[in-house]
UniProtKB/TrEMBL annotation:
This is Pimeloyl-ACP methyl ester carboxylesterase. It comes from the Bacteria. Signal peptide: none annotated. It comes from Paractinoplanes abujensis. Pfam families: Abhydrolase_1. Residues 21-249 form the AB hydrolase-1 domain.
Length: 264
């Protein structure tokens, strides 16, 4: 575990392996530990895997208020600068995938490949924006426990909550441990994000789109839409998984990543 001063805050991160750089961005309301299976599988002589707690999450600095995706993207670039990394493969899941899209908008010249897992490119509807803002207020008023109680069986495929107790426990721990002010700030910023569909048609780097077959938050149709928009992209649908296929079916997810990375 290491810490870096980036854009006026402290970001906690792990830097594993010694090969080509792969940066993985976690989703909401998690932390970098969600990528442990991928770090274990990929970090080595070929790949240097960097995972960090986003601002407001894990052990990184909590900045209350509102955190736009552009700020998260600037933090990704800032951490890469801190580590002396010029270009890199960039992947993210859910909100992390949307941060990845924002990164591609802002500094495509630094990105050599994209991994978009269980995410979607459209902006929120008016109802969706209101729901995110209401959830942000609730995080600040009640803490993070309510979110874990109400969403565990959507984060994982419902059948995996009992079938994979260790995974369910890890996901619950991440959600209940999310700093309420940081999660709220991210929700408010995410509610104002841009629509990335036009951007995706301009992608010129190899791209892998991955989704759990039973994802309720970002269904297979969302992944198929991104796959159709991104030229020459690859699509992998992971059976036996919901919104977190990297934790629910890590062997299948890791094989998809390894196959994609081997072609870069």
């Amino acid at each position: 575990m290491s810490a870096a001063s980036v854009n006026g805050i402290t970001i906690d991160y792990d830097d594993s392996g010694a090969g080509r750089p792969l940066v993985l961005v976690h989703g909401h309301p998690f932390d970098r530990s969600m990528w442990r299976p991928q770090v274990a599988a990929l970090a080595g002589s070929e790949w240097r895997v960097i995972t960090a707690d986003l601002r407001g999450y894990g052990a990184s600095t909590v900045v209350p208020g509102k955190t736009p995706l552009s700020v998260f993207a600037a933090d990704v670039a800032g951490l890469a600068d801190h580590l002396g990394i010029g270009d890199f493969v960039l992947g993210g899941l859910s909100m992390g995938g949307q941060i990845v899209m924002e990164c591609y908008r802002r500094f495509p010249e630094r990105i050599t490949g994209l991994i978009l897992a269980d995410t979607f490119p459209r902006t929120d509807t008016a109802e969706g924006r209101e729901a995110r803002r209401a959830a942000a207020d609730r995080f600040e008023a009640e803490g993070s426990g309510w979110y874990a109680r109400e969403n565990l069986a959507k984060m994982l495929a419902a059948y995996n909550v009992e079938a994979l107790p260790a995974v369910a426990g890890h996901v619950t721990t991440m959600m209940t441990g999310a700093p309420p002010a940081g999660a709220a700030a991210a929700l408010r910023g995410r509610a104002e994000r841009d629509d990335y569909r036009e951007l995706l048609t301009t992608v010129t780097v190899p791209t892998l789109v991955v989704v759990g077959r039973d994802d309720e938050f970002t269904p297979v149709a969302d992944a198929e839409e991104m796959h159709a928009l991104i030229p020459d992209s690859a699509l992998v649908i992971v059976d036996g998984a919901g919104h977190l296929p990297n934790l629910e079916q890590p062997a299948v997810f890791d094989e998809a990543l390894a196959s994609f990375l081997a072609k870069l």
